[in-house]
TrEMBL record:
Compartments (UniProt record): Nucleus
Name of the protein this chain belongs to: Origin of replication complex subunit 4
Top-level taxon: Eukaryota
GO-annotated cellular components: nucleus
Main location: nucleus
Provenance organism: Flemingia macrophylla
Length: 414
């Protein structure tokens, strides 16, 4: 019973770590993006200089998490010298809505009355005046522009106004752009690019070695804690053996080839920890394999279990047409291909009964969203082009569990 209590406590500790961005992304080494970003923004605050920075990298690589950690640090270190304005390109890419949102947040920050009826020019002038006031009060305004590439569309008046105001010695501001487009700075107009600081931080997906180090960091229990010393040492030893195991490395490599983002790796770890056996109190390689198969389960593949044998043959035929470099096909081509293999060469193309059977199966696949039409304006169902919404390799792996696979192999459809 006592061992099970230690196991429950270990699971809770590991789960809390996985859900804590500070434990994951906090890195004081000089080469880390956290240290670089903290130095750039903190120097702008302490030295009263303007700056503009771009955080670039794929989604889920930790850009926003690292920025939030830096802002939390600055809020604690300089509580009266920081003001944060947050915009999102999905909501505020329009200049009018962007300036209105900036004015609203500035009014809320400084306890002023916000006017919803204010015009675009009024909000723009108000922002410029507030930047000067904050500069005179030695207060830095940090503008966080999420989805930065969306602000670079259109006339870019917001970006020009912000970066142009930062050229004045009376203002004190930092613009931090976050984008998953690596060429986001190339989208800027010449007048905007000339005022940009051209400081960029690149967030890359973790490599195999980085992922292994992260796993050791996340899954190692502290020795000098409330856990028994022998239990913590044995737990850490088993974790190290799992990470060094060849079959575990193969599983981890498969996962990274599909989902290489940090957030996906954390989700994988959380699922593995949740499957830990509480009776033994230790993680095992099987926990990670179960997590891998449960996470990688394709939602559309679940519906394949509700398909008939004929419908599976139709999917196989469509995938075989794609392999033959016919990326698009229609009902007639799929039906003819299935008549040759499923009905053992008998000709039923002129029989309305079999045409209706095939069409019912076709409709079922459409309802399950396994396939979809590309041209909805054509009234005749036969020539309408369509595509399969399932990847090639997942459907091959899924068909391994069906009894019809030997027939498919004999027919050399795959």
């Amino acid at each position: 019973m006592e061992g099970e209590n230690h196991a429950v406590k270990a699971v809770n500790v590991l789960r809390s770590r996985i859900c804590d961005p500070k434990f994951i992304f906090f890195d004081d080494s000089p080469d880390s993006n956290y240290s670089k970003l903290k130095f750039m923004i903190s120097s702008s605050v302490t030295e009263a200089c303007n700056n503009s920075i771009l955080l670039l990298g794929p989604r889920g690589s930790g850009k926003s998490a690292v920025l939030e950690l830096v802002i939390q640090y600055l809020m604690q270190e300089y509580p009266d010298s920081i003001s944060v304005i947050r915009l999102n390109g999905l909501l505020h890419s329009d200049d009018i809505s962007a300036f209105k949102e900036i004015a609203r947040q500035l009014c809320m920050e400084h306890q002023l009355v916000f006017s919803k009826a204010a015009s675009f020019d009024d909000n723009s002038q108000f922002m410029m005046a507030m930047l000067k006031e904050c500069g005179l009060a030695h207060k830095t305004v940090i503008f966080v522009l999420d989805e930065f590439d969306l602000f670079a569309q259109g006339k870019q008046r917001l970006l020009y106004s912000l970066l142009d105001a930062m050229q004045s010695i009376t203002s004190q501001a930092v613009v931090v752009g976050i984008s998953c487009r690596l060429d986001a700075d190339q989208l800027l107009e010449k007048r905007v690019r000339s005022r940009f600081s051209h400081r960029k931080l690149l967030f890359l997906p973790p490599s195999m070695e980085d992922s292994q180090r992260l796993l050791m960091h996340m899954l190692t229990l502290p020795i000098d804690s409330s856990f028994p010393h022998d239990y913590a040492v044995e737990f850490n030893k088993k974790v190290q053996n799992i990470i060094e195991d060849r079959r575990f490395k193969e599983t981890l490599n498969k996962f990274l080839n599909i989902d290489s983002a940090v957030k996906d790796l954390l989700r994988f770890l959380f699922c593995a920890v949740s499957h830990m056996d509480l009776q033994t109190g230790f993680l095992s390689r099987e926990n990670f394999e179960i997590a891998f198969f449960s996470i990688q389960r394709h939602p559309k593949l679940e519906f394949l279990r509700n398909c008939t044998e004929l419908e599976l043959y139709m999917l196989v035929c469509m995938k075989s047409l794609e392999v033959k470099e016919q990326s698009l096909c229609n009902f007639n081509s799929v039906m003819k291909g299935n008549i040759c293999c499923y009905n053992r060469g008998q000709s039923f193309s002129s029989n309305h009964y079999y045409i209706n059977v095939y069409w019912l199966g076709f409709r079922h696949l459409i309802d399950l969203e396994e396939i979809s039409f590309l041209n909805f304006h054509c009234l005749n169902i036969s020539p309408r082009k369509m595509q399969v919404l399932i990847d090639y390799y997942p459907i091959c792996e899924e068909l391994l569990s069906f009894r019809i696979l030997p027939n498919l192999l004999r027919l050399k459809q795959f």
